Amino acid sequence: MADQSPLKRTPLYEWHVAAGARMVPFGGWEMPVQYSGIIDEHTAVRTAAGLFDISHMGEVEVRGPDALAFLQHVLTADIAAIGPGQASYALLCRPDGGIVDDTFVYNLGDHYLVVINASNIEKDVAWMREHARGFDAEVTDASDRTAMLALQGPAAETLLRQVAGEAAAGLPFHGVARAEVFNMPAVVARTGYTGEDGFELFVSGEHVEPLWDGLLAIGRGAGLKPCGLGARDSLRFEAGLALYGHEIDETTNPYEARLGWVVKLDKGPFVGAEALRRIKQEGVRRRLVGFEMVGRGVARAGYEIRSLEGQPIRHVTTGIPPP
């Protein structure tokens, strides 16, 4: 039976509707898929800048004396290598190596912030709390009180410098810092999901609308545009970035998804390590690959791929027309 739960809305929902955005369900949320058009927004990010409301994403705070030890246990990346003010991509894996979710981990000095996918919030929080048993670590779901924006594109640094100063705009790749943006407290990270330079900003829900309005006001002259999930998907696809539920899921392991680089088997024991070590040694029978259509038409997600003899091989995980 289909889930009949009402769709959640971000604090910017009314703004999106008033701006004429086309709203669609995504991961349990009602989100803008486009404003001026996917191609127009995609191009803005590649040539100038785009601003995305990604407040549907989940945020988990991990605190306590064993915070690092716990994250080392539950994630595939070497979290000990992430110093204060740094961030890293990481995976939550099952004992059999399947991917529970892909995450981004930020070391804020006094605690860690773990960003997870919107559709997996309840599952991930429960998974993390289950595996936190025996560790002196507190796992807090901060999703409902945290809003998140992504400012992406070649003009992002110049725009952010105008309102947040050098401490934020001058962050290195995968750097993170607390900052004042329009005199509002924020966490700013030089991360993103578009293949472009850019920043992700975390603020409380009550501060996100003035932050959104302020960034658009100073950026319009530089070509900044509000962007929806359609452009976010085409941008990440063009950059070769995986989307949970498409390229990765619990039936897919990191080596099949070409994410073996984020599995640090030499860091010590962690959930899934034994299975992943065996998979790496034995090799995989399937692997994520890209292909380009030479004729007309688009290979959409779910389409079956057959051999020249008509035998089914695999299926398409994501397919979009070129922007």
CATH fold-type name of the largest domain = Gyrase A, domain 2
Q: CATH superfamily name of the largest domain?
A: Probable tRNA modification gtpase trme, domain 1
**CATH architecture type of the largest domain:** 2-Layer Sandwich
**DSSP strand count:** 15
The tally of structural domains comes to 2
Structural class: alpha+beta
Provide an overview of this structure.
- The chain is of the alpha+beta class and about 325 residues long.
- It has 2 domains: about 1-290, Probable tRNA modification gtpase trme, domain 1 (Gyrase A, domain 2, 2-Layer Sandwich), CATH 3.30.1360.120; about 290-323, no CATH class.
- It has 9 helices and 15 strands.
- The chain has helices at about 15-20, 40-45, 65-75, 120-130, 155-165, 165-170, 210-220, 230-240, 275-280; strands spanning about 20-25, 30-35, 50-55, 60-65, 85-95, 100-105, 110-115, 140, 145-150, 175-180, 185-190, 200-205, 225, 305, 310-315.
- Strands 10-11-12-9-3-13 form a 6-stranded mixed beta sheet. The chain has a 5-stranded antiparallel beta sheet with strand order 5-6-7-4-8, covered by helices on one side. The chain has a two-stranded antiparallel ribbon with strand order 1-2.
- A hairpin with a 4-residue loop joins strand 6 (about 100-105) and strand 7.
- Helix 2 packs across helix 8 (about 230-240).
- The longest helix is centred in the middle third of the chain and has 12 residues, at about 210-220.
- The protein is globular and about 55 Å long.
- It starts with 12 loop residues before the first helix and ends in an 8-residue tail after the last strand.
- The model has no long low-confidence stretch (mean pLDDT about 95).
